[in-house]
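Hi all, long-time lurker, first post. I run a small reading group and we've been trying to get comfortable going from sequence to structure in the token notation. Rather than ask abstract questions, I figured I'd post a concrete chain and ask someone more experienced to write out its structure so we can walk through it together at our next meeting. Sequence below, copied exactly:
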Amino acid sequence: MEGAWAFILSASSFLFLLFLLKLQRSNKRNLPPSPPSLPIIGHLLLIKEPVHRTLQSLSDRYGPVLSLSFGSRPVVVISSPSTAEECFTRNDIVLANRPRMLFFEIMFYGGTTIGAAPYGPHWRNLRRLTSLKILSPHCLAGSLAIRLEEVRLLVKSLYEVAAVAGGGGFARVEMRSRLQELSFNIIMRMISGKHYFGAAVEAGDTEVARQFVEVTKEMFELTGMDPGDFLPVLRKVVDFKGRERRMVDVAKRSDVILQGMIDEVRSRRKRSNGGQEVESKTMIDSMLSEGYSDDIIKGHILSIFAAGTDTSVVTIEWAMSLLLNHPDVMKKAQAEVDNIVGRDRLVDEADIHKLPYLQNIINEVLRLFPPAPLLVPHESAEDCMVGGFDVPRGTMILVNAWAIQRDPKVWDHPTSFKPERYEGLEGDHAYRLLPFGMGRRSCPGAGLANRVVSLALAALIQCFEWERVGEELVDLSEGTGITMPKREPLEAMCKVHDCKIANVLAQL
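-- Answer (accepted) --
Happy to help. Here is the structure in token form:
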């Protein structure tokens, strides 16, 4: 133990000298304003949960381009539309890298996934595969039947619960678990071709799904700020709260599940055509046919799943929570769906572009509760300038989308839920509304997310009447996690809209 403390003391002294040298060098640069910091640890003690709120408070005091030190790592926080635009246009290539983070290295196959890989040929290849062969408009049109079927299963399950209530009364339902099943099945059917939740699913598949949901939940919990990422010298002697050991354990369990999915698809491909090449139908099929290694495929499955499931779930849950607290907005949305779609059939994706008020609601939900409030961190590959300030090479860039989207200088009544604010704006809110990021490292799954959220929300509004469980407003407190979930799962009262839509639901 004495040896460990001696190592920590000597390492701290060495880092302190480096800090002094860095400070002397930084005085020659026009760095962004910064709060007072401590030697070695920098500003780490200032960072409290939720991080996006802490950073907003610091930016309000020091400006929209804020310089921080997270231990040995320089950080710049961006909190205005104009500086975000600079990052994603003029400096887009310079800031296209990702910082090396411990959770990327351990849980995301050495940082080789599309979300974690540095900008270069490997990342461009994965982006091409994703944009052209998995999430392109053509491929999304091909997976329309999956989304329609899963949304119909969701409303059917709610109809069955409401029918038990009888007499046209309201039934109490918990929404988060239902939305998780919806999102999980859509993504996994696109990835592997299998349905993992539902009455007709085999018990073994349901168990695999349960384990994978649990593993990804733990992953989200472990992807926050880790002191080991910013004080790497201490990582050798201190395992902060056992996080690294937990990451290794989660990575092993995840790998077993993912390898099983690949092996099953590989076996199915051989059976379907006597071992000859078969037409690619799922994401795993596409990657196997192009000769990707199993580790790259597993990493891609993990990336698509992590980015595509929880984000849609939290967005729909926040949307329903806000609509329950604003019944006038709910009624206006229901009137739009009734006028365009009617109650003789269920809403289809072809109807979505005819429902502008629904899209305004979704934009407002994403503004108030972006599923990635700090986006995914970027890193500068070389020296650049943002907002008139020098940004040195190797600086981690955090774009505080949450702060930009609630900035009173940018939005009127920024904390109010007002879908009408988008009427007539068209595309005028670029860089003021950026829940999926911008530029070449923006989320490639934005198109899929919009389809899933729009279709599911439209169906819930069309098919059911909704009320709060009690007189009190739905609690909008934020939970912990990188996707900013509600602290408490949403519970609501629902009943079938009327007998016409009941007849449609009864035939599902």
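A couple of things your group might point at:
Strands lie at 65-70, 73-78, 171-174, 378-379, 384-386, 389-391, 396-399, 464-467, 491-496.
Residues 243-272 form the longest helix (30 residues).
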